[in-house]
Amino acid sequence: MGELAKSNYGDLTVRRLHPAIGGEVRGVDFSKPLSAETVDAVKQAWADHLVLVFPDQPISDEQHVEVTRYFGEPEVFHQDRIKSKYVREIFRVANTDEDGNIMPPSNPVQQQLSSARKWHTDSSYREKPAIGSLLHGVEISRTGGVTCFTNMYEVYDALPDTLKAKVEGRKARHDFEMLSRLTGAPKPTDAERAAMPAVWQPLVRRHPVTGRKSLYISPIYNDAIEGVSDDEAGTLIAELTEFAGQERFVYEHTWSPDDILMWDNRCTMHYVTPHDPTERRVMHRTTIAGDAAVEAA
Ligand code: OGA
Ligand code: MN
To answer: What is the DSSP track for 3-65?
Structure first.
């Protein structure tokens, strides 16, 4: 493959990382306030590339939250055990606790986080799912921990007619409780369940900014599809997931320290490959809260 194209967005330079998805952004410094022009340029580059990689951004958690505010309202995760106790908007995708001790895979937090090793899109179980996520590689893995992203616009466009017919006009259920069934993590308490009831989301959605149609599934949360048995739903979700995971749609990100990745949860899915659980991996995420229900297309 030849050198992938570079393009300019105002003062920013974006280098394409994969033909379908991903752009590496130079010319922005998240440790300083951003101008309105820079924010607009980032938004445009984001709409075009779906996942942006900002290398070399050694910022604090407070700065990470401030950067997130340029793009929307930071979401506060509804369970305490994965949130930072210092900065409540930080969701810790980490195998250490905040005193620096490694947690074994049998720890409930690790069990819950292990769900991220399967394709998903963040907080799709909310009535208004997250717009995007910003993940900061604080301590990165060298033994795995590669984060993979797929372009769900292109996946939708390329779906064979037989699969398209099965998703058109239909909804899938997204249930946070699926995580405990999937990973053995503790079941949500009655209060958590009441605060996060399962929701039905369209399988084909329209992006509020780009107007493009995409396939909308989040396999770690999907347990039912309208109009079919749960067995058939499981088979269909598995088929769609396999289709979406083809190389032609997927960028695989190998992390460097202080990379910040910003992805659009409305038109992508992601997962992370396993790593040696005795190696520290500390990633801090903010989430841009949803401001609208998903638009069916
Ligand atoms: C996430 C996630 C992947 C990773 O933060 O939402 O799925 O690479 N993380 O840790
Ligand atoms: Mn995720």
So the answer is: PPPEEEETTEEEEESSSSS-EEEES--TTSPPPHHHHHHHHHHHHHHSEEEE-S----HHHHH
pLDDT at 57: 98
Give the count of beta carbons closer than 10 Å to the beta carbon of residue 246: 13
Q: Which CATH architecture has domain 6-288?
A: 4-Layer Sandwich (3.60)
Residue-wise pLDDT for 62-92, tens only, equals 999 999 999 999 999 988 889 999 999 999 9
Averaged pLDDT, 239-257 = 98
Residues with CB under 5 Å of ion ligand 2 are 116, 122
Alpha carbon of 279 to ligand 2 centroid (Å): 20
**What's the mean pLDDT when you consider all of the chain?**
96
**What is the pTM (predicted TM-score) of this model?**
0.97
Q: What is the pLDDT of residue 2?
A: 55
Q: Is the CB of 285 under 6 A from ligand 1?
A: yes
Q: Which ligand is closest to the CA of 287, given by its number?
A: 1
Gap from CA of 120 to ligand 2 centroid (Å): 6
Residue closest via CA to ligand 1's atom 7 equals 116
The response to whether residue 116 sits with its C-beta less than 6 Å from ligand 1 reads: yes
- Angle among Cα 74, 149, 114 to the nearest 5 degrees reads 75
Longest dimension (CA), the chain: 55
